[in-house]
UniProtKB/TrEMBL annotation:
PROSITE patterns: CHAP
Gene3D superfamilies named among the record's database cross-references: endopeptidase domain like (from Nostoc punctiforme)
Signal sequence interval, chain numbering: 1-17
Protein name: CHAP domain-containing protein
Domain Peptidase C51 residues, every copy: 2-120
Entry-linked Pfam families: CHAP
Domain of life: Bacteria
InterPro entries: CHAP_dom, Papain-like_cys_pep_sf
Record keywords, A-Z: Signal
Length: 150
């Protein structure tokens, strides 16, 4: 019983660590392979790792990587590749393992932060064919360019 519960919990958690324990595609390796950002480790560590290597911003551009903060639901954080900026509050992203074990393409992500700085976002959830109800904290965007002054 306990073993089955542990297995079920592991399958439900969107793990974004460097490698998949079950061969499923994970968000960090997917983002690395489908962007010009070459960082490793858990998605939650990318924001800090990017300091001094890549520009970081609160303004999205196609090709950027959106970095989600770690939370109870996302203990390893999450990363998504921005494919299109629709407006100042909406981008389309490609990401892996948001829906466990799957790659989702052109998924809407909406900025719901009061300051329009992309620190709080809602993400499309295909099973309900709409925006999810959960608001996730985000660090911002890593750009595929060196930081200014480097």
């Amino acid at each position: 019983m306990v073993r089955g519960l542990v297995l079920a919990l592991l399958l439900l958690l969107p793990a974004c660590a460097g490698g998949g324990w079950n061969g499923a595609v994970q968000c960090a390796p997917y983002a690395r392979e489908h962007s010009q950002i070459n960082l490793r480790g858990s998605a939650a560590s990318w924001w800090t790792q990017a300091r001094g290597q890549y520009a970081r911003s609160s303004v999205p551009r196609a090709g950027d990587v959106l970095v989600f903060c770690p939370t109870r639901r996302l203990p390893s954080g999450h990363v998504s590749v921005v494919r299109q900026v629709r407006n100042t509050r909406l981008v389309l992203v490609d990401h892996a393992n948001w829906e466990p074990g799957r790659v989702t393409r052109r998924a809407p992500v909406e900025d719901v932060s009061p300051a329009n700085d992309w620190t709080r976002v809602r993400v499309w959830w295909t099973p309900v064919e709409g925006m999810g109800k959960t608001v996730y904290p985000a660090f911002g965007f890593i750009e595929p360019a060196p930081p200014e002054g480097s």
